[in-house]
User: What shape does this take?
Amino acid sequence: TPWTIPSNLAVAIHPDYDYILAETDDSCYLLAKDLAEKAFGEIGISGFRETAVFKGSDLCGIEFKHPIYDRKSPVLLADYVTLEDGTGVVHTAPGHGKEDFETGKRYGLEVLNPVNGKGCYTAEAPGFEGMHVFRHGNAAVLEKLTEAGALLKSQTITHSYPHCWRCHKPVIFRTTPQWFMSLDHKELRQKILEAIKKVEFFPKEAENRLTAMMTNAPDWCLSRQRSWGVGIPVMYCSDCNEAVLDKRVIDKVYEDALANSSDSWFEKDPEFFLPAGYKCPKCGGSHFIKEKDVLDVWFDSGSSCRAVLDNFDHISFPADMYLEGSDQHRGWFNKSIVVGVATRGESPFRQLVSHGFVLDKDGKAMSKSLGNTIPPKDIINNMGADVLRIYIATCDYADDIRIGQEMLKNAADGYRRIRNTFRFMLGNLSDFDPSADAVSYDKLYDIDKYAIARTQQLISDVTEAYNGYEFHKAVKAIINFCSVDMSSLYLDVLKDRLYTSGKDWPVRRSAQTGLYNVLKTLVRLTAPVIPHTSEEIWQFMQDPDKEESVFLAGFPSVNVDMIYPDNRWNEILAVREKVFAALEDAKTNGIIAKPIEAKVTLHLPKDLIDLLPKEPAELASYFIVSQVELKEGEGEIGIEKAAGEKCERCWLVMKDVGTDPEHPGLCSRCADALK
Assistant: This one.
């Protein structure tokens, strides 16, 4: 960057490197020892003599003559100097770079910035005044260096350089007067770090991220040179340029902004905001101009906590939770906690939830130019809003989320499992009025109590997941409940009782009572994730006493009296799995064609027999077989064809088929159900 040479005020070297004085036939050079061979080779000098060696720290304070101007540039020490390229001796211009500025500040250098806002040199760069630094400055500086005999080599290199995000043109660094918030004034930084410790973070790792950022954050630059924004209530004396920051002016600006708008700062004369007869505290002048800079927009957003939480009676400071993308650890989250602690002494949020971003199926950021965007509206039109919601909910939002058609299809499968579970329940509750038909809990069949117990456990698991904002765990628990506890067990077992029993038989009403309890709970658990489906289900529920909407029904809470305190059902389900395996073997060996035509003989220890239902028909329904016989034994399972005939209605093989002359093809139970 030749254009920065007129701004040079110092030379930086590393304190720990070795530097040499190298003589050639016609000159003498100071450079890092480890770079000498490479540097002289690149500039075309074939031989040099090492006449002295110094530690970098020993050279601090010596002076070089500026290559263009009649001034000195002292040697300063800086850890950012490397031995990767160059000479190990770095040109330093405090007016044109963050590291240079900080080094210059540490050594008390002035801040020289001979470039105006249009990118042209000012009179502080004699010989270059009016030149644009890129269009003419670089070439002009190289020419001056050549004339002075100070240019050893000039070449173009490719390196990373900042560009404007909008017009894609290169930008330059200029040190300009700005307003800052000191993070170390009155121990503000330490207070912020203490406030962070009191916040609950989701995910927990986010605490480390925000802590690291605040620990290393520079002072906050509050001013911006924009055409629009909130004014900075500062006056400048027209005579001595003294900055006047007076609380009376700030109060006047505040009052007028409330009464009119924040634009009044720009619209009204300085005298309107100044106390009558106000004089400059430095020179006594009475003429003032207003600050033209505006506040950083992040100060606006960081102050939103005050605008919202301090102006409504029904809410108070601090907020329960802040939710935004993970990039806001350096944005909204960061600035909000700075403003909150600075003005109120505490964080403006109790909880902080941060999320990743949606990428395409290959993990690439979506953009119109790449053609890889997936408009949410297209997904909603094709699959429904709840499928999109359930897909996002099944992902761990703490990380970036990929989305593609195959992933959405998988989400649709999970959604259908939930919806089909609801459909089965609603279909079998169409004639059930819970106020008139429900069976008391103590009279329910054992498996109906078990289904309710599993639902209570689901309430606990889902509530814990929701409270921790772990929606993927909640959805996984719900889908697993619908697939395993319901479809594979409870609903399968209930079919015989629901389809073949008499309408008002206690055995059927018990099944419906169990179903209704599960349904009313499950629909409220799913409502936060699939609200449209849940509301639809709620409206189809046959309950005259239900609330108008699922979202007015209240979230379910655990009834501890309905949770089984022991492992009884674990034992029963273990027996069920062994019976299923034996039935498969019997099918393979040609003993039976279908499980429903089988008789199962269980030889079990007495303590296990005592756990099983005493009614053979109920136990047979657990295994979806026609007949079950229990005997004491060591766990043997016998499978044979059930004796009797197949009932035309329930399809069970029973010995009493045909005993009712009015229904010769039915078992006695089905015949009774039709009377």
